[in-house]
Specification:
The chain is α/β, with parallel strands linked by helices. It has a domain of about 220 residues: Amidase signature (AS) domain (Amidase signature (AS) enzymes). The chain has an 11-stranded mixed sheet, with helices on both faces. The chain starts with a helix and ends with a helix.
């Protein structure tokens, strides 16, 4: 069910948060041994559900928007008193000492946190195969990945183990798994949601996002967690961007030059069907040119590793997290980081350290930042002519576990999502159709992108094309 449907039942008393939690826990008990969406199921969720049930009996429809809603949380988002491992041996036993701002705000709205979901270690990956605690599987086909890095959150919602989930999106880590698992995935405008209490990967790229069963649910959670935060200097004010939130019909741009080759023919067929459906609904669809977006993947894999190498320098075996004794202080550092980090994390730290080094900073990192600024300008120019831009969420449906052993092949799965994080605009992945592989129907998502501050526009549009279809 959706949050809207659950809330209606909670208010009228035909169903309670206590019953809902028991039903969701039953799904976890039945399916998660195979799927492995969760790293931990919280033992205090039943007591919280009982308290929510009592509040509904007293407050009815006046209760907070998320009261009693069982939400799963990606395990790189801090919840006070709970383990926050980032799916890494480095933080295997780390317990959060404070709530992330998004958690604090959801608690005020009465949300229940049912458990911590699996992810690629430190959110580095596109398949949730890089977790130090095991692979998560796609509920639609357990031979395939759920996407990543928020694969655990996407799988939890897709298999019916939570009404919605929080994830983080650095280069598509909410939208791509949403596309693979057949749920809605929303990445807000950069700065619209506080990053305080998110375990940092790429500070100029990271955003907390939502995985849900409807666009309206994503909007409800976004409204609860968004807003300026004095603990995060990158958050923006509500009136930072002046943008008309709604229109009767939308003019939608399709960047044919960006799509190019490499998109699976079946995925492209679903995408073309989406265009036809939009035209039939009265929207105008036109081609737009975004040639610089092709440079997004190359720029991202310079900017992101550079920020990774800086952010992960704090895991040194001294202050917190894993510590491995060596012969001296330097040996402590070397052994701790060698044993604590997985292969993909090490790969990105090494690459990031290289591009930030004195001899190569201008040649690589500096040029990537220039390309990033040019991409922002290119998008801004495109939005003078269109209201929304659409692409496939991913060039392929979910791939098989172990299929992409080549890191470069894995990185290409994010080709349509990483430019969004580089430019800071909002985007949503909406389930649009399925393709058949090995006798299984695999979901396919379409990504819709709005200008900076266009979150309300995407919600309005998304509810029309998905929730009200």
């Amino acid at each position: 069910m959706t949050i809207t449907e659950l809330r209606k039942k909670f208010v009228e008393g035909s169903y309670t948060p206590t019953q809902a939690v028991e039903d969701y826990l039953a799904v976890i008990n039945e399916r998660d041994e195979d799927i492995h969406a969760f790293l931990e199921v919280y033992d205090d969720v039943r007591a919280a559900a009982e308290a929510a049930t009592e509040r509904y009996a007293k407050e009815g429809d006046a209760a907070p928007a998320l009261l009693g809603m069982p939400i799963a949380v990606k395990n790189n988002i801090l919840i006070k008193g709970k383990k926050a491992t980032a799916a890494s041996k480095m933080l295997e036993n780390y317990t959060a000492s404070y709530d992330a701002t998004v958690i604090e705000r959801m608690k005020k709205e009465g949300a229940l946190f049912i458990g911590a979901t699996n992810l690629d270690e430190f959110a580095m990956g596109a398949s949730t195969e890089n977790s130090a605690f095991g692979v998560t599987k796609n509920p639609h086909d357990t031979a395939r990945v759920p996407g990543g890095s928020s694969g655990g959150s996407a799988a939890a919602v897709a298999m019916g183990a939570a009404v919605a989930a929080l994830g983080t999106d650095t280069g598509g880590s909410v939208r791509q798994p949403a596309g693979f698992c057949g749920v809605v995935g929303y990445k807000p405008t950069y700065g619209a949601v506080s990053r305080y209490g998110l375990i940092a990967m790429g500070s100029s790229l990271d955003q907390a996002g939502v995985l849900s069963n409807s666009v309206a649910d994503a909007e409800t959670i976004f409204n609860a967690i968004a807003g300026n935060d004095p603990m995060d200097a990158t958050t923006i004010q509500e009136d930072t961007y002046k943008l008309a939130p709604k229109k009767e019909t939308y003019r939608i741009g399709v960047p044919r030059d960006f799509l190019g080759e490499g998109v699976d023919p079946d995925v492209m067929a679903v995408f073309e069907e989406s265009i036809a459906a939009l035209k039939a609904a009265g929207h105008e669809v036109v081609d737009v040119s975004l040639p610089l977006m092709k440079k997004g993947l190359a720029a991202y894999y310079i900017v992101m590793p550079g920020e990774v190498s800086s952010n992960l320098a704090r895991y040194d075996g001294v202050r917190y997290g894993l510590h491995v004794d060596g012969a001296n202080l330097l040996d402590d550092y070397l052994k701790t980081r060698a044993e604590g980090f997985g292969a993909e994390v090490k790969r990105r730290i090494l690459l990031g350290t290289y591009v930030l080094s004195a001899g190569y900073y201008d040649a690589y990192y500096g040029k990537a930042e220039m390309a990033r600024e040019m991409m922002r300008d290119e998008l801004a120019e495109a939005y003078k002519d269109v209201d929304i831009i659409m692409t496939p969420t991913s060039p392929t449906p979910a791939f098989k576990i172990g299929e992409k052993s080549n890191p470069l092949s894995m990185y290409l799965a994010d080709i349509f999502t990483v430019p969004i994080n580089l430019t800071g605009v909002p985007a949503i992945s909406i389930p649009t159709g399925t393709v058949e592989r090995d006798g299984k129907q695999l979901p396919v998502g379409v990504q819709y992108i709005a200008p900076h501050g266009g979150d309300a526009r995407l919600f309005d549009f998304g509810k029309r094309v998905y929730d009200n279809k």
